[in-house]
Design goal:
With 176 residues, this protein is mostly beta strands. It has a single domain, classed as Porin (Beta Barrel). 11% of the residues lie in helices and 57% in strands. It is elongated. The mean pLDDT is 86.
Length: 176
């Protein structure tokens, strides 16, 4: 059994090194955010999310075109009459990852495509971030910090850059 596992790892490693597509699974939390009620920390209501990202890496694996789906909710002090679910976000974006260097830069335009009644958010945001990868044989472990700013849209949208959120995310990144 150990020989089969070793053979599978040795065969999978060259495919991972020449990856064109990727799948990233992880979670994120708002460490701090500022809105019309002031600046808040993660312990105020524990806003968290689960993320799924599909990526296409250009030849050379320096630039990826990404499409991420995120499901967000709060886990503490849910407003009366509302559920804990905040909504669904679609994030088209790009990542710039220099070869043989574990750091990368990321940019995205989060689109709040769905939100439950009682929650009011802007439609479009700007996300800029940086992260690093810990490469393993079959996948990478990533840790990423992002800043989100509202851009507008929706019925109750704040002015651009009037609010912000600092998010930390982590998970696994597979390349196929």
């Amino acid at each position: 059994m150990k020989k089969i596992l070793l053979a599978a790892v040795l065969l999978a490693a060259p495919f991972a090194a020449r990856a064109d597509t990727g799948l990233r699974l992880g979670g994120e939390a708002d460490l701090a955010y500022n809105n019309s009620t002031g600046t808040h920390g993660i312990t105020d209501n524990w806003p968290v999310a689960l993320d799924l990202m599909l990526s296409y890496w250009t030849p050379g694996s320096v630039l990826s075109v990404d499409l991420e789906v995120s499901e967000q909710w709060v886990t503490k002090d849910v407003p009366a009459g509302q559920g804990s679910r905040i909504g669904t976000v679609l994030r088209p974006g790009i990542r710039l990852s220099p070869p043989l260097f574990p750091l990368y830069l990321r940019g995205a335009i989060p689109i709040n495509i769905e939100q439950p009644a009682g929650y009011s958010r802007e439609t479009f945001d700007l996300r800029v971030g940086a992260g690093f990868n810990i490469p393993l044989i079959l996948f990478k472990i990533y840790l990423e910090g992002d800043l989100d700013f509202p851009l507008g849209g929706g019925s109750n949208a704040p002015s651009a850059f009037s609010e912000w959120a600092f998010r930390l995310s982590a998970g696994v990144d597979f390349h196929f």
